[in-house]
Amino acid sequence: MLSNTKNFLDRAKEKFGQLLSGYRKFVANTKQKLGNMSDTNYNTGMYHLDRGNLFDATFRFKIIKKFWPDRLEAQCKYAYCLILQNMINDATILLHEILAKDPNMVEAQQLLNRINNGEADKIIKEYNEKIKKDSE
């Protein structure tokens, strides 16, 4: 009976070691994937923005804002998407938040200046013309 118990414990120890090894690999793989999520979402957002898929682009940049709030370039793209959807007040608030974090963020300054100069419609028109030209 003692040898049966020893065999059982040896097998259990071996199985536990395999399980622990598998778990460690899973954790390492997950960390790697999560580390790339910010870049993946940014690149996917840019892909959609360049093709006129504003809903999908906005979604990607909004995810980045939520989980990686220090990625201000993505927040500028999010504000740009808001402008393109005629959500000017929301874009203005976001641009002010970005500039509070980094007053030297050129893209945010430029977008805010254009909004303040009454050029939001012009931004939308320029984007729509670019998308139309790229699709021809």
Helices and strands: which structural class? mainly alpha
Shape: elongated
Distance between the termini: 80 Å
Strand content: under 5%
List the uncertain runs: none
Count of helices? 6
Percent of residues in helices: over 70%
| Largest sheet report | none
Task: Write up this protein.
The chain is an all-alpha fold and 136 residues long. 86% of the residues lie in helices and 0% in strands. Helix 2 (54-67) packs antiparallel against helix 3, helix 3 packs antiparallel against helix 4 (88-101) and helix 4 packs antiparallel against helix 5. The longest helix is centred in the first third of the chain and has 49 residues, at 2-50. The radius of gyration is 24 Å and the shape is elongated.
Could you give a quick summary of the protein structure above?
The protein is an all-alpha fold and 136 residues long. It is 86% helix and 0% strand.
Key terms for this structure?
6 helices, 136 residues, elongated, 0% strand, mainly alpha
Reconstruct the topology from this structure.
Elements: H1 2-50, H2 54-67, H3 72-84, H4 88-101, H5 106-116, H6 120-135
